[in-house]
Design brief:
Strand content: 5-15%
Number of helices: 7
Oligomer: single chain
Helix content: 25-40%
Length: 152
């Protein structure tokens, strides 16, 4: 994958349409706050959204964008094991991870989620996490979410 094993790796491997500017800024704030531990943020390079990488890097700023890692999608046989490279999965609040959350959890990676919307799609990951007895990984506000990510 090309991701250094000696770094803390936070990830969001959702499709780009699930991301909105406020959560991206929250993730970049997390990276700024964890600069001393050289945290990386891992995302997939989705074929249908190749321009997203350049846009996200530009939004992150020069210093922080050096710690954002994009990789190609994993081959089918590596979907669960490969996602286990992450140390923490940072979910998107308006449209939560669905299958990705279960794959990441199956790979042994905790999922930090923030269920904000009224639609079912914004509560899927929190339902999975709560069902596993991991309620401490469900944030209530963007600020709470970022603080929890820093602590983890």
């Amino acid at each position: 994958l090309g991701i250094p094993e000696d770094r803390f790796v936070a990830a969001n491997l959702n499709r780009p349409f699930k991301l909105e500017p406020r959560i991206f800024e929250t993730w970049m704030g997390f990276l700024r706050r964890t600069a001393g531990v050289e945290t990386l943020f891992w995302m997939f390079r989705w074929p249908e959204a190749l321009a997203a990488e350049a846009n996200l890097r530009r939004s992150a700023g020069a210093e922080v964008s050096k710690r954002v890692v994009f990789t190609d999608l994993l081959p089918l046989e590596m979907r669960i094991q490969g996602k286990g490279v992450a140390d923490l999965f940072l979910d998107s609040p308006e449209y939560n991870a669905h299958g990705t959350a279960t794959e990441v959890l199956s790979g042994g990676v905790p999922v930090l989620t923030l269920p904000l919307g009224k639609a079912h799609a914004s509560r899927v990951a929190s339902s999975v996490v709560l069902g596993l007895g991991m309620g401490q990984l469900v944030a209530r506000t963007y600020s709470d979410y970022q603080d929890m990510a820093v602590r983890l």
